[in-house]
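Predicting holo structure, pyridoxal-5'-phosphate bound.
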Amino acid sequence: MNGDSMLADRYQAVRARIDAAARAAGRDPATVRLLAVSKTFDAAAVAALAALGQRAFGENYLQEALDKIERLAQMAPVAGPSTGSTAGAAAGALGRLEWHFIGPIQSNKTRRIAEAFDWVHSVESLRIARRLSDQRPPERAPLAVCVQVNVSGEASKSGCAPQDAVALAAEVAALPRLALRGLMAIPEPTDDPALQAARFATLRELLDAVRRATASGRGPAPDTLSMGMSADLEAAIAAGATIVRVGTALFGSRG
Ligand SMILES: *Cc1c(COP(=O)(O)O)cnc(C)c1O
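Done. Tokens:
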């Protein structure tokens, strides 16, 4: 089996898992978006998945991401009449990719993140949020952001403390060049289904509190729960995930 047909099989399998999990939870599968986490995989892998219809890609490491974004932009055609060819259609898909930054953010990297990405899932301090807002180019739409919450309370993991999440989200929502879309979490891996469900439920309850706290603000109510990865997307969808971030199950092991 060649690499592209293996990728197509994995893509179908992940989509089927999302569909089944949504239906099992009584949810419309269209309410769950797949974010393909392409970190450590090259531009050709992104292009192959884009040709299958995937549009949103997540990256953790800034320099790797910027190289990939530029390479893919070069592979996309300049605007003009469509040739109608298969290659033209595949190249056309590359012009419409949506890039999500999901990794830890150092303050000296905020400018290039604000310039190159459509979404940032990993906002964990007001200081970083202010820089992203100040540095978002005026010609681009406001940067869509999620506040990352450390729902497992591990010292090693990023994210704000759960008790600080609502206040931080309210301050982020007030920044002019950001659009607060919701919350993100990476719960610690666990074999205990009750603990796993409790972590995801914590994030959902925090989003409800954020919605109450920002109800009078400008813009649409935050509705995004970015949670669930290759190993736990079913539990996340059962708890209300609206974006699942999937790497390994799509692209294979990062080795
Ligand atoms: C790498 C990564 C993922 C994808 O994890 P998989 O287990 O490979 O699906 C999702 N979210 C974040 C923040 C990541 O860093």
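Residues 3-24 form the longest helix (22 residues).
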